[in-house]
Amino acid sequence: MILLNYVVLPLAVILGLAYGMRMIVSRWGPGQVGVLFRSMPLTGAFGLTVILLYIVGAVFAPLIAPYGESEIFEAINQLPGQDPRFSLGTDQLGRDLLTRLIYGGRNTIGIALITVILAFVLGASLGFLAAVLGGWLDQVLSRVVDALMAIPQLIFALLLITIFGQSTINMILVIAVLDSTRVFRLSRAVGVNIVVMDYIEAAKLRGENLSYLIFKEILPNATAPLLAEFGLRFCFVFLLIASLSFLGIGIQPPLADWGTMVRELAPFINYAVAPGFELAAALPLMPAAAIALLTVAVNFVVDWMLQRYSGLKE
Fold it and tell me: Over 70: is that where the pLDDT of 1 sits?
C-alpha cells in the first residue's frame, strides 16, 4: 500500500501528463515545436514534464506550500495520515514536511542552477580563449585545470568551504570554480576542432576581433554539446550540493533543502520496525526520491538531446 500510494501512483500521474503533453503539443503546437514533440520519445517527454513540474513548484513555492518555510507547530514527529493538517507529517521540530519539500526544491534547484551558470560562464570563456589563442595561455590554463581535477571534487569542496566559511555564497563560488574545470575541458576540446575550420580562417583574414570569433563563430557551433553538458553538470552539481548539505556544510538552516532533510529524517527509520510505524521509513525516502527523480528526468532529456543533435539513432 505504501509503495502504491507514494511511488506507483505519482509516477503513473506524471507519465500520463507526459504522454498527454506530447500528444497535445505535437498535434497543435506551432511550427517547429510540434515537429520537435512528434519526434520526442516518451522518456524525453517524461523528463521534460518532471522538470516543468519542479520549475513550477520552485517558482510558485510560496503559493503552493501550505505553511511557511520555517513555521513550527506543536505536533512533532507526525507520520503521514496521523494529523489531517500535515499530509506528509512533521519533523522533529514540528515543521510541515510537505512545505519543507516544496521549499527544499526551490532552494536546492535554484542554487544548483546559479552554480552551473557561473561554472559555464567561467569554464566556457576560458576554454574558448585557450582554443583560439593557444600558446602559453593554453598550457598554463590546461595544467591548472589538470591539477584541480586531480583532487576528488567532494573532498576539495569540503576543504575549501571549511577554510572560507560555511555560507551559501561561499559554497556557490567554490563549486562553480571546481566544476568549471570540466566545462573548460569540453569547451576547449570543441573549440580546438572549430578554430581550424575555413570560416574561422576567413574571419581572421577579415580582421575580426577575439570577441567576434568566440561569440559569433565558435559559440553557435558549440551549442549542442554545451547544452548536453549543461544538463549533466546540473545533475552533478545538484547531487554535490545535496551531499554537502547532508554532511552539514551545504545550505544552512533555516533554509530547507533535500540533503539536510535526508539527514534530519534518517532517525525515523529506527521506528519503522514497531507495529503501526511502518510509514516512518518513508519519511527520509521522500527527499531522497525527489533528488533521484529530478536526476533521472534531466538525464532523460539530455539523452534525447544527444540523440537528436549528435546524429545518433536507436
Answer: no
- Give the whole-angstrom CA distance, residue 194 versus residue 34: 32
**What is the per-residue pLDDT across 40-71, written as a single tens digit (0 to 9) for each?**
888 888 988 999 999 999 999 999 999 988 88
Q: Does the domain made of 41-309 have the CATH classification 1.10.3720.10?
A: yes
- Determine phi and psi for 277, rounding to 5 degrees: -115, 25
Q: Which pTM value belongs to this model?
A: 0.85
**What is the secondary structure of 142-189 as a DSSP string?**
HHHHHHHHTS-HHHHHHHHHHHH-S-HHHHHHHHHHHHHHHHHHHHHH
Peptide bond into 84 cis (omega under 30): no
Q: 277 is written with which cell numbers?
A: 510505524
Q: Sketch the domain layout of the chain as residue ranges.
A: 41-309
Distances (CA, A) of 243 to 108, 120, 134, 176, 187: 11, 21, 37, 15, 27
185/132 Cα distance (integer angstroms) = 14
